[in-house]
Amino acid sequence: MWKRLALGFGVTRYNRARDATVDAQVPHPFFDNQFRAVQGTTPATRNEVGAHVLIGWMMPITDRIRILVTAGPSVLSVRQSLVTSVEVTETYPYDTAAFKSAATKDATASATGFNAGADVFWMFSRNVGAGGLIQVTHARVKVPADGGRTVSIDAGGAQIGAGLRFIF
Questions:
Q1: How far apart are CA 108 and CA 20, in angstroms?
Q2: What is the per-residue pLDDT across 1-22, written as a single tens digit (0 to 9) for each?
Q3: In whole angstroms, what is the distance from residue 113 CA to residue 157 CA?
Q4: What is the structure's pLDDT at 70?
């Protein structure tokens, strides 16, 4: 942009599908304020897409090696499976219950957060190079849950990447 000031834009994507642990307290059918603990697993997914504005400062180490330190705002969008109900099996006298299954729904929301990172690259020519970066992003996303409630999810995290660098 100007002297050693840099401006960039990045997009990140994260997808994961695995079993989620369910720990629930199920009320006793006969006694008030008496709960039975059940545990189990259910399939769940999490998808994140991030858009990041990178404002950086370029520091040449040698004629060909450069370090770029960046920070800036990020927008992270999250789609997360949430457990909405738990089904149990139980028999008389109902003092214990066993996990049978859990119902889930996908909740989606976006939030603004931040990013910070460092990029080390080697220049092939004046305008083209290759390098690797380490970046941390974070946003607290509040997704809608049943009953008008919201659930806070920490989105983002540490990221590494490599690729070509074009300097204009």
A1: 18
A2: 678 999 999 999 999 999 999 9
A3: 11
A4: 97
- Provide the residue range defining the domain that includes 138: 5-166
| Total domains, the chain | 1
Half-sphere exposure of 22 (CA within 13 A, CB side): 26
pLDDT tens per residue, range 47-94: 999 999 999 999 999 999 999 999 999 999 999 999 999 999 999 999
Decide if 133 contacts 160 (C-beta within 8 A). Answer: yes
Say which CATH number the domain at 105 has: 2.40.160
Global confidence as pTM = 0.82
What is each CA distance from 102 to 84, 93, 96, 105, 106, in whole angstroms?
7, 23, 18, 10, 13
Residue 142, phi-psi category: left (phi > 0), alpha (psi -120 to 50), beta (remainder): beta
Q: Which residue has the tokens 């960046």?
A: 70
